[in-house]
Design a protein that fits this description.
Two copies of one chain form a homodimer. With 214 residues, the first copy, chain A, is of the alpha/beta class. Chain A has nine helices and ten strands. Chain A has two domains: 3-123, Rossmann fold; 142-213, Regulator of K+ conductance, C-terminal domain (Alpha-Beta Plaits, 2-Layer Sandwich). Chain A has helices at 11-22, 34-38, 55-60, 77-89, 102-110, 119-132, 136-142, 162-165, 206-213, and strands spanning 3-7, 26-31, 46-49, 68-71, 94-98, 115-117, 146-152, 174-180, 183-186, 199-205. Chain A is elongated and about 60 Å long. The model of chain A is unreliable at 135-139 (pLDDT under 50). Bound molecules: adenosine-5'-triphosphate (2 copies).
């Protein structure tokens, strides 16, 4: 089970924590405002009131044991930066931080956040896409069966062309794209050779994808 | 071409407008702050400085001709509500409004917004999903190009097998699934015949999908 910490219970932090709980993760929430922590006391989360810029408060809340910590503080840029630096020092494996703007995001990345979220900008981009093309999630939700996954290349198809790999005929999955050296080849040609370090982005029924991953 | 209006050039509004321009829409941006409008004067957008709570300003900006208007004002809740009401009166076919919180969202929906966006909450939910599962959207975001769409069957391929339709070779799109009589056939066989009333769920680059839809 994933052990997650969420620091800051604004709209973003609250949504992260609530969704993580719904998805079965173990969650610690930490906020300096007592009422915000109190809102989580009826949930399975461990809810602590405390100032996360204080290393002792982080330790007492159990944050050092987390696999992932989300720093969900936007307005107090200084606090978000200090907290991120403390988490980096603690060796948290995955630090996700919400940024107020591009500059804030660059600073957070420099001092150790592994992943930066820009909620307003990213939802703006997605909103525009959904107005122009129908949103993938809507379409995929029509078919609860359908799943997309990124997998390492199975040993038995390394070096084969896509055609010869028989991903479609034998494994019943559709190869959407190949990720190679950080670039994505969308709808690759049947003659394309699958290389050892490629990762494959495939679509199919949940069961078929899981079978390949074994 | 889609005619869009974006009112309010905060982080969300700016991202919506910029992305819509990149996707080929005609965009009008309206903001009461001159510098914000000025930022868009080097783009193909029509950029107007003006107060959107003033119906005359909306008309002079060309807003009544828009298919879709996005109200991207968060902090000034009263302004966002008044503007939404004006747009409703103008008969704008699709009004998308950003809400500051659930109550604000309910009011916007009541007075005429067709779609409400909660950027912080929605990105919080998505962030949580991406931490737990290899989320489709992460995968798709790796390829900003990649888009999925549900389209009516183009006339020239009705009655053909998928193989003969050449969707992949000629149109560069990948047929993920066929929707027929409300059921979804995932990864259909190459010999499957495409029927007149089928809708096709296709994946490809945004530009290739748009070309097919013409
Ligand atoms: N040093 C701190 N330690 C712990 N919690 C803090 C600290 N500083 C701020 N917070 C908490 O973080 C939460 C979110 O902060 P803030 O409102 O600044 O972020 P926001 O980015 O506006 O939130 P939203 O996600 O709603 O956009 C608040 O509940 C606040 O109490
Ligand atoms: N009545 C109005 N008419 C036109 N523009 C307006 C009006 N009121 C506010 N704006 C503009 O809307 C923009 C965004 O407003 P605001 O900062 O309140 O939203 P926000 O929700 O904080 O933005 P973000 O998308 O960054 O979260 C500002 O640039 C502001 O000038």
């Amino acid at each position: 089970r994933l052990q997650c910490g969420v620091i800051g219970l604004g709209r973003f932090g609250t949504a992260v924590a609530t969704t993580l709980l719904n998805l079965g993760a173990d969650v610690i929430v930490l906020d300096k405002t007592e009422e915000k922590a109190e809102n989580f006391r009826t949930t399975p989360a461990i809810a602590i009131a405390g100032d996360a810029t204080n290393e002792l408060a982080l330790r007492e809340a159990g944050i050092p044991n987390c696999d992932t910590v989300i720093v969900a503080i936007g307005k107090d840029i200084e606090a978000s930066i200090l907290i991120t630096a403390l988490l980096k020092e603690m060796g948290i494996p995955l630090i996700v931080a919400k940024a107020n703007d591009e500059l804030h995001g660059r600073v957070l990345a420099k001092i150790g956040a592994h992943k930066i979220i820009f909620p307003e900008r990213d939802m703006g981009i997605r909103t525009a896409y959904s107005l122009i093309t129908s949103n993938i999630l809507d379409v995929l939700e029509l078919s609860k069966d359908l799943s997309i996954s990124e997998i390492k290349t199975p040993i038995n198809i390394k070096g084969k062309t896509i055609k010869d790999s028989k991903l479609r005929e034998r494994d019943k999955v559709n190869l959407l794209a190949i990720k190679r050296n950080g670039k994505i080849i969308v709808n690759p040609e049947p003659e394309e050779t699958i290389q050892t370090d490629d990762t494959l982005i495939i679509v199919g029924k949940v069961g078929d994808i899981q079978r390949i991953q074994k």
